[in-house]
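PROTOCOL LOG
Step 1. Enter all chains and additional molecules of the complex.
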Amino acid sequence: MHPIVRWLVITAVAALASGSSWAADCKFDTDETDKFTKVRTLVTQRDSLESFWGDGSKRKQQDIYVSAYYHDGEQALNIQILFTNYVKRMPPEYELRNAIVIPGNSRLLLMMADGSIVTLNSANPVNANARATPTSSRVSVDSAASIYYPLDDERIAALSSQSASRIRVEAAETHYDFEIHVKSQDDIGNAIKCIQANI
Amino acid sequence: MKTRALMAIVLLGLSTGVNAAKCKYAQDEVDPFTGVKTLQTKWDQLTSTWMADMREIDGWISVLAVGDQVTLWVKLDYSIKTPKEPAFGSLRDAIAIQKGAPLLILMADDSIIELSATHEVRKDAYSVPPWEQSADTDKFVVRAVANIEYALPPEAIAALKAQHATDIRITAANRNFDVEIHKKSLTDFHNAFACTEL
Amino acid sequence: MKCLAVTAIVVAMLAASVDASAASCKFKQNTIDDFTQERLVRIDWVDMTGWTSSTFKRTIGHRKDIEIAAESVGGRSLLKFRLRLSDAVRKPPRESDLYSALYVPAGSGLEMEMADESIIELVVDKEVRGTNHAKYDDGWFVVTSKFVVKYPVDDALTERLAQEDVVYLRVAAQSRNYDFVSEQGTIEFHINEKAQRAFKKVFDCLQQAHAEDHA
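Step 2. Run joint prediction.
Step 3. Record the structure below.
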């Protein structure tokens, strides 16, 4: 084979392999079929969308994880948000209530690579209380919420066709914005593709 | 020919005798006033006894026959380990079965037999701290045990006798409790029916 | 002589605490939201405590601080007050005491008395409960309540507040067990000249930010 042709073949194979690398990375936390109902449930392993290193100087920390979910023919995106706040003294119990409140049908906004915005709506209301844990010099106040956003064909196509750079989780009277780390911008699309490839 | 027939009868008699000898009863009495016979088999564990304390859910069955009224009893033992002491109030109604809630029994041919709970059952869990356990552990054990009675209509008995059951699902108010029947326990239903002469 | 010295100190404190002579607007945020394309404007807190006199006697353990800020989202503006009050008591507070130490019920009003003696009334639409805590100090329990209350303001009011002087504030609130609120059910603040300039500056900056959208 001519060296140039050989180089072209190798490059094409490499390109194909890198384009389909998400399939090799598909990992599932759950892949089971209910013995009684025969309903299949698939949940991809959750991916962190923010930088691993975060910003150690912040008094507040936040994390966001995504996984794709399939159950009984329905697909959804599961977003988990976690917040840690450090305070000087143990807060009273009533201050920990309703730390995160996300009404049903709240929006999830995803900024895509081409500047368009894909909007999803949450399935059910989510209310989470915070938890306070004393550490050596201060008190850590943690709160977390897991929200499901059903996906239809149009949104599946929109989310799996390009990467997402920013994400906004709308809550009651506020919203939470996250910058998606450059290495994680394909995570949402890949999670959805993993489900699509396995159902 | 006659010899073979005699041998078969003797073997059948022996096997019946062996089965009868294996029957263990929690109750075996006749009411002196009504003449009604009550037979209840002892609890038979559906799950393996091996590594039982590592399992969240264990199940036992027993058959109760009072005259010609037959019911299936299921004992559900649910326990989890947790690093933190459970919050007050979280132990309430750990097992909550509504009257009429289904028990699903998955058979070897993938068919499902459905029975209904005859009464409501509500059991709170209790917590055992690490320092009160015999094992060397730093975890709390949260445990709840409930005995649930299910109606056994004749067609269900016939279906349960026709083949083995492989799994049961106890439907509770907030969740399902699934029990996979250990291979050594596949004949437990048959044995219970045999012991109660059904 | 002593009176003059005290006055001088107070004036110096006033000058230090209120940056009334700031020529430019200090925006904590003045950006376009990528998702909604709305302009988000936040004017940073301005401390108005140093110059206020109050109808309550200021003693050790009694504190009454107020800061003002403003924000708008897509031209919908909010006037914000951040209040910090404290009271000293002998009896250790229970959690239930702290819960109702100070709060602003939904529908409570704010009265702003203007220089021309007119009254502007605003209403808060949601209940506000502060962050309340107690600290032991030499035989006393100092109970401090900190909260932020926000009132919607329209363009006309924004313009008015950028041009006219506010001389008195009355924030309607409720308090149980502690000496935070007057018998009339209000927390009151007198606004002096330097604070009036700071107040107007906040709204002038808000108007400038809105004008960028119309430019």
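Step 4. Note key features.
The first strand of chain B starts at residue 25 and ends at 30.
Chain B has three helices and 13 strands.
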